[in-house]
Here is the input.
Amino acid sequence: MSAYIIETIQRGILETLEMTFCASLLAYIFGLPIGVALYATAKGRLLENRLVQLVLGTLVNICRSLPFLILLVLLIPFTRLVTGSSIGTVASIVPLTVGAIPIVARMVESSLCEVQPGIIEAASAMGASPIYIILHFILPEATPSLLLGAAINIATVLGYSAMAGVIGGGGLGAIALQYGYYRYQKDVLWTTVAILVIMVMLIQEIGGLIAKKVRK
Amino acid sequence: MQHVFQLDKVSKTYKNDSGEFEALKDVTLSVEEGEIFGIIGMSGAGKSTLVRTLNRLEEVTSGTVSFYGQDLAGLKPKELRKVRRSISMIFQSFNLLQQRSVIENVMQPLRIAKLPAAERREKAMEMLRIVGLEDKKDAYPSRLSGGQRQRVAIARALASDPKVLLCDEATSALDPKITGEILELLQKINRERKLTIVIITHEMSVVEKICDRVAIIDQGVLAEVGEVKEVFSNPGSEAAKKLVFPSNPFDPTEPDAKLIRLVFDGQSAGEPFIANMVKETGIAVTILSANTRSVGGIGYGQIVLELPKDEHDRQVVTEFFRSRGLVISEVTP
Here is the structure.
């Protein structure tokens, strides 16, 4: 491989990391509250509310059922509105975030469902309000599970970020596509794939370790 | 004496797809200040539902539950939360936050009551001293034994200075020795802090050990309520008879044998009346079960006997015991 390609791959790694972590962070900023709301408004839960549950649940399901590639294309006007451009690393953070929000929301919801009902009963018996119970009982108890879920979500976003290359996003995915696929440079293709695999494994391992350390 | 809780014709019906289920039917009873009140019943009898009506974790279908004269059903959510701070609860599964240390768990109710952080810590340490766990303050619940976890739960329950403590099968997950220690702790707290305690259990031994009065719940109905020693020596209802009957007697030698249960109190416990009966009447009986225990400070005991086959002999034997002032009841194993 030429020095130029190696430099390109190095830049690609940084771009991929940038896209993955920025999109994941944004996805959690929006997805975590949605996940909490999905959990809390479900039947028999603290803030049972059929309307909110129906609207949020339907929205999340629609977004989740769209193939990410379609979402990428559909969101081009929105992306242009937000970032002023529809190509490049920063621009691909928008569809990545939108695509990850429903996944994060469902993952958060399922982590919260694992919390023992007895904990919630004890908190209610203490005279805690529903909001207090969510903030000080349910979320802390679910933290190890939330962290494991986060590792899975970040790895998913990393996978999606490679797809963003198709519509002009940056990162390793774009390199694999341009050099590996369009120009038949098999070595570039396999190198980028190997790096992506290693990155996913690292994210998963680190996430697992943190979750284990946090769990008491 | 003031009623802590007054239940008036409380009923609770659960509705689901397969129909209705009446968990409680017309339960009327009261809990007095300063007493340890037991609620006993087989599993599924409705006792857990009953205790949850006391802090409105369960809404009643009909009837009223009052706490110091205040109808709980009439409270707004905010008022209810305030009242709940005076009604603490401990559970069979402890329900501690696994991700928080012992002291953080104990501080939780104080934080809910919006006490300043420094006072919270001080108060929590005081509570941990009461249950004898101040050296475990920074440990996490997963590192503690079942008995220690329940002690933490008790410390947490006491932290808010409640007027009453509800115990929902609090010792059912613990072994007999630890159960004894927890019950002693509850008794100590009851005496020293004048705290009213309501205990839900399926074990008669728990009731006998620390309760002043007991209510027997059978299939959602209040079968009997009274002083523990009264219910123990003279159970009126079928459910009560079943509960006071020893849990693992020998099998009778005949399948259709006639069994009687003798109950004796402190006065007659010292007398060798079985030996006397055999000596005087010359009739032999088989002892299937015998035990003695201290109930409310007085030695109580019960013996289950299999009577001889002959009808006349049976009468002689029962007459002998009756003349000695023993309480006799016929029982079926």
